[in-house]
Amino acid sequence: MPRRAAFSAQTLAILAILATEPSAWRHGYDLASETGLKSGTLYPILIRLADRNIVEACWEQGEPAGRPRRHLYRLTSDGLATATAALAAAPAAAPRAASRAARPRRVAAPRPAVGQGS
Amino acid sequence: MEHMTWMLRQAARLLPPERRPWAEALQAEAGQVPAGWPRLRWLVGGLVVVAREAHLARKLVYWLGLGAVATAAARAVILSWQQTQAADVESMTDRARILAGAAALLLLPWLGRRRGVFGPVGDSVAARLVRVAGCGAICDVGMVFVRIDSRSNVNDAIGGGTFSWPREVAGVVLIAALFVVPGMVRARWPRLDPAGLWSLTALAGVLVLAVAPFQLIAVLLVAGVYVLTSRRSRVMPATLTAGALAGLAGGALMWELTIAIRGQLDSWAGIFFLLPSMVLLPAGLAGLAVAWLGSDVDDPPAVREARFRQALIAGAMAGLVSGMVLTYIVGWFPMLIEGPVFGLVASAIGGAWGAGHPRDARPDRRRDMGLFVFKS
Question: Between chains, do A28 and B370 touch, taking CB under 8 Å as contact?
Fold first, then answer.
């Protein structure tokens, strides 16, 4: 039987969260809190997803008071299609995605100006 | 905690510029993570990300390997001075060989940084391993030459004899012709069978090695290792891996043969046919594997030609590695020439068969750590 490539469970968890509200920008700690992933696992996945144009990244606009600017992430239009297909093909991830979608999110950053992305 | 933040900021400098924003993102988020263990774990994770993205472990092992090669080269130079007699003309030749090889080890990477042909090393693990192990093996072979000459007490005990400028110049001309003539032939007769042309070129290369002085061979070996493993090289990691493994297998077979029929290898047929024929099977299999495993039915002729060239490189490399193994163990240095000849012949057969019998189209087999998993 031929082998095919699929996303890992950790990647699916990230995609599920990003796909719940595709237009919203999310930051790293937000994603880590919701998925339970450690920074050493979360960021390599985000880097690979950004390399493949599944996720787009940019810096928060302006200078927020009392904290540094955040790096923000959301799905690209191609990434949304990829994530939807991947989540549909992975039944185990679907309930988790649904439960996360039902929960109120901690942060839904407004869309910043594009052009400062990594 | 401030120390960890400082370490993460400093470590970010190890990343290529396009990756640094990710390290800055980790630092920016650290301030939002609750103080104490959670923040410490976040920062440690950030350091892990930086180490992984900067390929720190791979670079560290590679530079340790280069240090070992530099030590081996220095040891070879010292031994060539200590173990040979200054008044002996053969000793002068030994020193010239060792110094030429050591100079090549030192200078070619420097040239590579400026021109890119000899370096920097390719990204693959195979390229790094082959570069470090190949340079180390060349140093070891140099020490074997010195050891044999110092014990033989006979002039011309090994190959080259006394140093000769005319031979050096002739060798340079031959090598230059080797690089120029195939291109000229191809431009003049574009319909010429590429497999035949590349086979003839490879065999001519081995003949040049046989005619050229040993000083030149030392430099060529070092240059070959650097060129094959440089970032600009088109040699696939699979070719390097197959060539190296087949060479080790061939060397082991030859060594076993020298033990099994020790008394019967003194004949002409034993030395020039039976012993190097141990390379045929591993080199042929390496050529076959390199040409066949990556092929698809829809490959155009140019891709099959490229695959055949990879097979030839794997075969020549297998023969050379086998020759180095035998030279190191029993001191039979002509195998450095015989091995590549036999390896080329076997890999030409295996490569032609493999490139001519492509596999069926394969499914997508992309893989990336942490991002994809395989499912059957």
Answer: no
